[in-house]
Amino acid sequence: xxxxxxxxxxxxxxxxxxxxxxxxxxxxxxxxxxxxxxxxxxxxxxxxxxxxxxxxxxxxxxxxxxxxxxxxxxxxxxxxxxxxxxxxxxxxxxxxxxxxxxxxxxxxxxxxxxxxxxxx
Length: 120
Description:
alpha+beta; globular; 2 helices
């Protein structure tokens, strides 16, 4: 399995919610929410549109975080409703990555602090 995570930066939390509400429904029924990103010489080298299985989106503060997940081995799209285990694994991957991004981006901005190096 492999995933692509995309973060859209918007001017406000209200703008992020508006964009999120305008996106197509997510999940296996709308897998093309975001594009896949194939990266040569990595496990994602064969991750293209045909391998994408599902996509999800969420808002966090002024960000819209989107994830799409699918196969890393070149297999084409399958009917996830027929394989509950695969559906759960791909959903967990996408939601886990989005949740991690939300935990970093959705919280308050840290106050800058000097680490004690020269020039501080």
